[in-house]
Amino acid sequence: MKLNTSFAELKQNTLFKLLSEILEEKGMKGYVVGGYVRDHLLGRGNKKDIDIVTLGSGIEFAKALQKKLKGAQPVQIFKTFGTAMIQWNDIELEFVGARKESYSYESRNPTVKPGSLEDDQNRRDFTINALAISLNRVDFGTLIDPFNGVEDLKNQLIRTPLNPEITYSDDPLRMLRAIRFATQLDFTIDPKSFEAIQRNVERIDIISKERIVVELHKILETPKPSVGFRLLEKSKLLERVLPELTALKGVDEIEGQTHKDNFYHTLEVVDNLCQKSENRWLRWAALLHDIGKASTKKYKPQTGWTFHNHEFVGSKMVYSLFKRLKMPLNEKMKYVQKIVMMSSRPIVIAKDFVTDSAIRRLLFDAGETIDDLLTLCEADITTKNPKRYEKYMNNFTMVREKIVQLEEKDHLRNFQPPVSGDVIMNYFGLTPCPQIGLIKEAIKEAILEGEIPNAYDAAFEKMKLEGKKLGLNAHA
Ligand code: CTP
Predict the structure, then answer these.
(1) Within 6 Å (CB) of ligand 1, which residues are found?
(2) 25 and 62 part of one domain
(3) Share of the chain above pLDDT 70, in %
(4) Is residue 315 in a domain?
(5) How many angstroms is it from 211 CA to the middle of ligand 1?
(6) Which residues contact 209 (CB under 8 A, 6 or more apart)?
(7) Mean of per-residue pLDDT scores for the chain
(8) Rounded to two decimals, what is the model's pTM?
(9) Structural domain of residue 452, as residue ranges?
(10) Cβ-based burial of 87 (10 A; exposed 0-12, middle 13-18, buried ≥19)
(11) Does 139 share its domain with 23?
(12) Scanning 17, 31, 285, 435, which has the fewest C-beta atoms within 10 Å of its C-beta?
């Protein structure tokens, strides 16, 4: 891989020049370190968070900078970590004094002592994240690369600066980070490193769920998340983090009949979907759309393999999974549940003859999620038979066209009953009672079946008719 090894533009950077001046004034040393340097070399655009390491107090340095940096927000100090942060325009500057860290077995929070730049680079996760650029006048803009990080960038390799056993055991989150970087950057994890991950998987249990989820989000937000999920599975991290997915692995055979491996199928669906949508929660829905299949799997001689009701079971599992991982139990979760719950509906429609009433019902039940639901269903077509693929895709195109036509007429996406309960009560002189619900339901059914349009006058006539059937008369 070709790297951008020119630091000319960094040397012209007014922010870095100012940092250098203040370091000089204070008689301190300082370096840009970590992700910013890595991404610069990879030509991955302007990273908006910049980590600065100083020899001496990072907090003192941040305070001095804040006074001179026009438009900078007040310094935020994180005493427990000995770090400081300044928000400046859209840039987040993080400051830390170079340190030596020693970890205890039970926690990922280290005991910290001041150290040299080398100590600081040693404690970092990967060689490609341990690169530093000097901000000091004597060698301003020089790259400091004690672990051949540049070579590893060229060779697209994830490797730890120290013995990987130590690096991962010190901070087990790094096992997920290794897999996340491999997925994001399309890099390989050094085999020794991967073996160390395999040996340390149970250490992931000391990591907070929130941190784990950040990494899962990042893997899911890459163009090809299957790379990461395969590595998670291979390392056995996945069964600790998302056992619902590993439960989908494997193919059973009874009487010569098999079903597909739902784990690898799911990964294909996720990759397909990621070509079409950036929506994080739709990506989660794709990842989880089949999780109900493990517990509902049955073989019957007449029908073969079935996963009866797996969508309902899966949508219930979404709740427990989100809860376990401390993910939001809000409208995002409900959205994922809804998509999982409805994930087979359009497929059933697209396989059969597409009737208007089936589409109206789909539109009514899916509401605002209809487009996303169809995107998932299209991604779910993983047949390798080109004829069949084309046929299913055409059917979905037809479903989409019908939706547009029916929507123009009936506006069912956010269905509001055209005749309200109040109108019904007034007309028949009723107080709240079950008949009102029955009439409303009959009107809704008539609209979905296409017997009447979704409009007030037609619904009012239908109301009169239904009232009559229930023995009700117009109120004088
Ligand atoms: N780091 C580490 N171990 C961790 C987290 C971070 O050693 N568990 C170090 C790495 O040197 C990393 C730097 O801290 O480069 C900054 O971490 P972070 O901001 O989380 O990641 P970046 O490398 O900046 O990359 P990205 O923003 O893409 O996550």
Answers:
(1) 34-35, 49, 51, 124-125, 129-130, 171, 173-174, 177
(2) yes
(3) 99
(4) no
(5) 12
(6) 324, 325, 326
(7) 93
(8) 0.91
(9) 421-469
(10) middle
(11) yes
(12) 17
